[in-house]
Fold:
Amino acid sequence: MTVDPPPAPPFRDPRLPFAKRVDDLLARLTPDEKVAFLHQFAPAVERLGVAAFRTGQEALHGVAWMGPATVFPQAVGLGATWNPDLVRRVGEAVSREVRAMRARDERVGLNVWAPTVNLLRHPLWGRNEEGYSEDPRLTSAIATAYTHGLRGDHPAYWRTAPVLKHWLAHNNETDRATTSSSVRPRVLREYDLRAFRDTVGAGAVAGVMPAYNLVNGRPNHLSPYLRSELRAWTDEDLLVCSDAGAPSNLVDAEHYFGTHEEASAAALLAGVDSFTDHGTDGSRVTARLKGALDQGLLTEADVDTAVRRQLSVRFRLGEFDPQYDPHRDTGEFDTPAHRALALEAAEQAVVLLRNEELLPLAPDRRVAVVGLLADECKLDWYSGALLHRSTPLEGLYERFGAERVEFAEGVDRIRLRTGGAFLHVPPADAPGEARGAGGALDPALLSGRTDLPPLTTDAVGTELALADWGGGVLTLRAPDGRYLSVAEDGFLRAAADQPGGWVVQETFRLEPHENGHLLRHLGTGRHVRVAADGVKVAGTGDVFEVITVERGEEAVARAAGRADVVVVVAGNDPHINGRETEDRTTLELPAHQRRLLHAARAANPRTVLVLTSAYPYAVDVSRLPAVLWTAHGGQAAGTALARVLAGDVSPAGRLPQTWYASDADLPGLLDYDVIGSRQTYLYFEGAPLFPFGHGLSYADFAYSELSVRVTDTSVHVRCALTNTGDRTADEVAQLYARAVDPSAPRPRRELLAHRRVTLAPGERARLDLEVPLSSFEFWDVARGAWRLEQGPYELLLGASSEDVRLRTRVTLAGEPPAPRAVTERGLEGADFDEHSGIAIVDRTRTAGDSVTPAAAGASGELLYRSCDFADGVTAVSARLAGEGVLEVSLDGGPPLTRLTLAGPTPDAYTYVTVDAPFAASGVHDVRLGLRGPLRLAHVGFSG
Structure:
């Protein structure tokens, strides 16, 4: 007698829709099992055959943290390609490597935390390398391409599940867990939300990650826009994953709630579905959530909602249908195609900023390649370990021949003497080991090597290579290439292949002291001293005399003087002076590298400056015949650069952000008001060093035959583009628009569309660009809605935001401006047209905005234009919290009334209504003055 096996439960039935299967599995989970799923590391449910699941696999420009993988250019470099088709292919390659790596290491996750769509509003932001552009449309175009590549093309099953980072208005590392970005409604919708909206709407996004910071006084992990905006953009169940440690920050750093139970409940209700907190240990997160359930702060239905979203992603990834998963055996790793794609991406990311007929280089040139980055292939925090490596020096050797290339790094070569003896690096018998080569779920926990002997002293000492990366931050390297580093035991060793780690242990500062210097180790903050058992860091340090054997500029000048052309490779180390946790302090190139550039230029005026960096610099280029920029270009960076310099490839990268001429052009790092502070190419009125979209070519292109056709839904732009040069090259045609006579401040010009086109010499192409009319809309604060304003618009077509080749005007039949109907709607405090000294803050802990003076106890001014009082009002009322005085005036005149909140309200969220007589009729500009620690939510008019 045979016994039939029990039927498979519905959640195992691939014939059923995912939603029904999710509901079935959800109903089978116990309350405790469901709560456990809310931690990043969701445990297995063995009784149901459900495996463990981890949210979060870093994959910004290749698979990161899990050992060797193909390393593509940094995200800002991918943005500089202006090529969505290329970036989609990069995303596809990365997702195939994720699948291949997971097949041999289950720690590799399929829920990838990429891309970063934060806009590059401010070039001093430490994480500039992670974003694509300062422009929301370019950012969205590149991010959409990358997510489509990561997702794959199957209609039901996803190759990986991309999560966008970091929601929302996040551009500072300084105090990032406690600072609040004050974002007015227009900036929120026209700028910060737009990149997320368009990318999510394209249909290849599985979720988002909130950022550490607060927006308008409210932590991003409680953002009401997760519900009101994000989830309205798609029918997919989006998975919102917290950033690491951010749920605890709600209590521990931000003090927004008094208990973790309150904070966890609030985050879950706001829309956070997966809590990344306390590493792999989910016990504290689950205890907090169970406590919130016990206290009635959450219901089981609230938990179900979050778990359903996670399960939806897992079903889409094919976890429950391995036999039907079309991506199961599609993994590819380090293939020739991936290597070729890494080279292609690195080539397309190179931007030619200036060229006075020096480039391309003739094949018989003798080339000196000099600079701190000339023989480096740098990785950043979100890179995988290198499988292949190509530095500028290696690329030039390969292209021009080693006999025609001379190298000078430009480091200062020094010895350090203390107490009559010199620091000595003993020989190392242990094998070399690249940081992170073995992979780690959290590389921040990787510790330094202790298997190598500590430094000692002797009578001769070891010559060290000193590089100053700016601000006195130094690295010291032994002759065998190992960097001096400090491990957990406090000893100083030559142990690191590169500076790196969450807390960099390879940086130092020489501090003048008495007749010498103290050597401070920056990772520990302690000073270096010599002890009987070796050199270590301690509370007090020894005084060192710095013996300079050779200045870096001396070696550079010798090499430059013997060459036909000098290539100076300057820039940043992605782990030093500008990275996650650390903003930059200046646009200036570090002094050490300025000295090297000056020495090279003085010895040989035929000098090419190659800036290899994660962000823009302010550099005097007036005496340089050629300047290029590339982000850190990944494993093929050196080969790509050499091919561009030699003319094998014509450069066609374009700047994805404005390069400002000096620090004086920059707003404050925490000033997020791109409209009021005239930030980015959209509003900046000064003269940039290089404008947004700028990039030169070895070919010339002619634009002609511009025509425009307007329909009920779109503007159709057509033009002809011809390569008038003598070589095949790419051109990036860029279409901008500006409102000619706007009723509110609008961008000087705004990117609407672009196209990267490859043309042979003499080849002509016809470009057709279709722009939806919605692209011309702006957020009308008077109506609280999008509005297409009727009137003339200028269309600008050219090679950059400033290099306009063709222009024309169209008149769009939108809506005319209308005054604010203040007798019906009143004035929301945050819906101002202009302000001075105002910050937007949270009206309640869950929703709404108020305004308050930005400086404690100071004053702030608000302007609301064209307010219609109709036939007249006789009273004004205001919803106020705190204490102080609200002054109301019209058209720049003196205050007509004052509303006084005499005593402080119980807390910042307790509002009272204050009334006062006020007479007005017709249309006027309303000015409000806030005096003292006053919060204003709303002003109403009646009578």
